[in-house]
Design a protein that fits this description.
62% of the residues lie in helices and 0% in strands. By secondary structure, it is mainly α.
Length: 60
């Protein structure tokens, strides 16, 4: 029983040291922003205009 506990403690300590031994520097991955089409921009503008016109008069 004691040997089992020591083996588990040893295994956990090895896992902790190997897990914490790596670099702490953050790696940034740059991704290109998705491009929107003219139709998507027009649809977005129309939707925002509709939301603004629906919201008029609700404020207090």
């Amino acid at each position: 029983m004691t040997r089992t506990l020591f083996a588990m403690l040893f295994a956990l300590s090895i896992a902790f040291v190997s897990g914490c031994g790596g670099t702490t520097e953050t790696t940034l991955i740059e991704v290109e922003a998705p491009q929107t089409t003219d139709q998507e921009e027009a649809d977005y503008e129309a939707e925002m205009d509709a939301v603004e016109s629906d919201g008029e008069g609700d404020e207090g």
